[in-house]
Amino acid sequence: MLADPPPTSTTSLVVGVLICILMNACSSFGVNLQALGLRKVTEQPLVFDNAETDLDSAEENTPLLIRSSTGSDRIRQWVGDHLWHIGFICYIIPQLFGSIIALNFISPILLAPLGSSGLLFNVFFSSLLIGTKVGVWDWVATGLIIAGGTVVSVFGNVDVLIKDFPTLLKTMASTLFIVYFSVIGILLIFCFGLALTLEIRKSKMLSVVLGSDEDVQQQSVQYEEGRLEDAESDDAAMQRAEGLSHPGTGAVNGRVADATKFDNHIGFLFASAGGISASMTLALVKCGLNLLAMSDELSSEEIVTSIALFVCLAISVVLQLVTLNKAIVFISPLIAIPVFYTFFTTLSVSNTLVVMYSIPDLELPAEIGFTIQMAILGVSVIVGGVWVLSYSSFVGDKK
């Protein structure tokens, strides 16, 4: 049956709104901090554990980082070395507990539009932490995505409540339910598999251009010992020692560019897979995990079903975390998060409608036609916002 939103007092509404905003800010901060940590790892300089290291043996152009012995500097150094882990904690805690806590104070109908506030925080933290250039069109696109999400949540959303286990089994056994979620599963596998294929292809191309890690390390040792026997210039030798190129720098740079030209596509596919996984997680919860948790006694069939649901839930949560972290390796969170949010919002609405139509003997509300129309309108606005954001970031239209 369709669920009615619980009555909400003014105090509960204020508390719920504040919780949502704080959780979204923390989650956006965590994602961008993870992206910053990943960048720090890829740009890690040569590190010495103390200041007593003989610096005379190092080349003048070699980047050095000397750990200070003072307590405050050690703390800053520790934080710098663990940015990804700190960001992961800041992201995962709101994802696991934010919605559960907020739902104790506000209606689920208000949760989604408030969740779109995370996009504003994402733009802010992306500029603050990573240094992403944010232009006028980035803000316009973010506003469109938030407006579309609000339309979908307020006017195009129906909360479905399944109250007994037999109804849940009949819903999951319906042809519409099976066909729809099979298509969603295939779409998830396609996006994730294609992203992995392109990533592996890129790694192989880079390994051919730059050589294996052993070759790079051997070249670096030879350079430091001054025993390079070829006739390379000093600049070319430095590039060779750092593993940046081989002789024929121009050709190598062209091959490196060819290997990295699909980064935007890889990041987009990973972000899309993350949004699909998140929508499936929400669908699993709506399809009865709360019902299973409240059941005192379960039959053997119900136990098997509940185990399958929990396994699918665990897989979808892990995929959501892995794909989102993969996405921010290849593209900025300024792009990854809106793409993630677009797929999550769009599929969450369609998931709810499919579940509603799959419930046997359910009397549909009279305004279902209006609901579907508003859902389509909101999703169209969201897709338009993501297109504007992608155009602004990829083409470089920053004003």
Describe this structure in words.
Keywords: Membrane, Transmembrane, Transmembrane helix. It is a multi-pass membrane protein. It is found in: Membrane. One of its GO terms (cellular component) is membrane. Its main location: membrane. The chain is mainly alpha-helical and 399 residues long. The protein has a domain at 1-132. It is built from 15 helices and 2 strands. Strands 1-2 form a two-stranded parallel sheet. Residues 45-69, 227-232 and 240-248 have low confidence and may be disordered. Helix 12 packs across helix 14. It starts with 9 loop residues before the first helix and ends with a helix.
Structural class: mainly alpha
Order of helices and strands: HEEHHHHHHHHHHHHHH
The tally of beta strands, per DSSP, is 2
Radius of gyration: 25 Å
Ends: how far apart?
A: 50 Å
The global form is globular
Which percent range fits the helix content?
over 70%
The main β sheet shows up as: 2 strands, parallel
Percentage of β-strand residues: under 5%
Overall average pLDDT: 75
Transmembrane segments: 12-31, 83-103, 109-129, 136-156, 176-198, 268-291, 303-322, 334-356, 368-389
Keywords: Membrane, Transmembrane, Transmembrane helix
Protein name: Magnesium transporter
Subcellular location: Membrane
